[in-house]
Amino acid sequence: MPQRIGRMKALSASPNGAILRVLGPDWWMTLLASLIIIVGFILTVIVILSYDSFIIKTCCILFATLFFFAIIWSLLSLATTDPGIIPRSDKRVTIKTEFYMTLKDVETFDKDADGIDLKICRTCMIVRPPRSFHCSKCNTCIEMHDHHCPWVGQCVGLRNNKKFFVFLLTTGIGSLCGSMLCLPPLIERSDAIFLGDTSLQDTVFKVAIFTGMFTFSMGCTLIVFSICHLLQVSKNLTTNESIREIYQDTPNPFNKGCSENMHLFWSVYPKSPSNLVDKGENSNEYYSKILQRYGEVHARATQDQQSTRQQVDLEDFRNYRYGPIRLYED
Fold it and tell me: According to a count of CB atoms within 10 Å of the terminal CB, is the N or C end of the chain lower?
């Protein structure tokens, strides 16, 4: 039986409990996107079949089929990949009862203007790592959250960002190529199509023309989105950070240069955490690994057992000398 993580569902897991496949809350949007792709492919094949040359017809259909399966694979792979779900904390284990209400009111831990704010998620009851975000639609915290994509029905984050870029690029190129393949026969039959011919094939061709115009426009748009996404990657920015212009007036501490940023983006990220719900045993080790991944940060924690105030000083990021990061619980 699928295990729920917020509004998401874990479809499968490895023997140690690590997430292998998940399903977002708006899974029906993935089905709708798949249906649109299938309809577009069928219309493309119908138009291609009107070619006179058997060789050209066969080559075009094989080419269109190749892109069709590539787009479907990239969509389904993106929609079922863990975007970077952060295990929730069990407040009954990790947080004292008298401290719970105080913690619920905490928003930001770091009040130092020269540092980086680390916030607490009052739903998941965890300290959110840098660049993470709690998605209200998925109802879970996502590492290096980029955005919630409605067409795939879930978030784009640390572990599926590469697949999102591949989906954008594949769909954009496939849409443009499909439109180009349909163009010659549509031009050849344009007179019959628009001069009152009511045959079934010409009716289908009329639908194909408007669909092709939409597909071409969508392909151009997706190519532009792909380029914009790649530019963000080259600066080590997420879509959220880019839209909110977080680093417009201050240097981006995560920017390691275009070459290193690209290397980090295309590198293999660690597998999903083994425990969907963190019971507190390995929380320090888990969050230490998360913080190190964003800038080779070394954490040293000091806890005062007699007070509800806790401070964690984090050493400067590599290539980041604008001040330490501090966590405060008030």
Answer: N
Domain residue extents for the chain: 3-328
- Spell out the per-residue pLDDT of the chain, length 330, in tens: 567 778 888 776 666 666 678 888 888 999 999 999 999 899 888 888 878 788 988 999 999 999 999 999 999 999 999 898 887 765 543 444 444 444 444 444 444 444 455 677 777 777 777 788 899 899 998 988 999 998 888 999 988 999 999 999 999 999 999 888 888 877 776 665 556 556 666 676 777 777 778 888 999 999 999 999 999 999 999 999 888 888 888 788 788 889 988 988 888 766 666 455 444 444 444 444 544 444 333 333 333 333 333 333 333 333 333 233 333 333
Whether 149 is a known active-site residue: answer yes
Q: How far apart are CA 299 and CA 326, in angstroms?
A: 10
pTM for the whole structure: 0.75
From the candidates 60, 141, 149, 177, give the one annotated as an active-site residue: 149
Containing 325, the helix (H) or strand (E) segment is strand 325-328
Residues counted in the chain: 330
